[in-house]
Amino acid sequence: MRILSAILTLGLASIGIGVGPAGALADNGAVASPASVQQQDSVLEVLYDDGSGRKPVQLTLDQLRELPRSGFRTTTVWTEGEQHFEGVWLKDLVAHLGVSGGNLELSALNEYRVEIPVDDIDTSEALIAYLRNGEPMSVRDKGPLWMVFPYDRHPKFKTETTFALSIWQLDRITLLK
């Protein structure tokens, strides 16, 4: 359903139909670009399935941009040439959310899921990228969020395990026990 919603939103915007923050058609006829839709809508849902009773959090692209920003240049097995990724370190996002233990399950629009122990995040060098080569990433281009690693920095990042953790179209993080 989320994929259909994202495709529909982007598709309507590309043919000149304005789409509001909740997916409603704009009644003023204004065209919402994919970038503006991404900035206004929630791009990341955070759920707490750890027994803490914490309420879900919805983060917009603008809220992610308020967190400490970082980036690096690297090549990937999914793109051509060197790419410049910018975003927030996963460890900074986890600290912002007040998470200190357990496991994180990261999910993509297509329900692809990976799990990371919170204790491993500080040394993971995982970046939740929202810009690639200075531009927001569309769903078609693995966005709006893509967890990437500095693959060229060290051989430990060029492993099947790291590649499998490199989740694109990231839309949900769940804290597990």
UniProtKB/TrEMBL annotation:
<protein>
    <submittedName>
        <fullName>Molybdopterin-dependent oxidoreductase</fullName>
    </submittedName>
</protein>
<dbReference type="InterPro" id="IPR036374">
    <property type="entry name" value="OxRdtase_Mopterin-bd_sf"/>
</dbReference>
<dbReference type="Pfam" id="PF00174">
    <property type="entry name" value="Oxidored_molyb"/>
</dbReference>
<dbReference type="InterPro" id="IPR000572">
    <property type="entry name" value="OxRdtase_Mopterin-bd_dom"/>
</dbReference>
<feature type="domain" description="Oxidoreductase molybdopterin-binding">
    <location>
        <begin position="50"/>
        <end position="150"/>
    </location>
</feature>
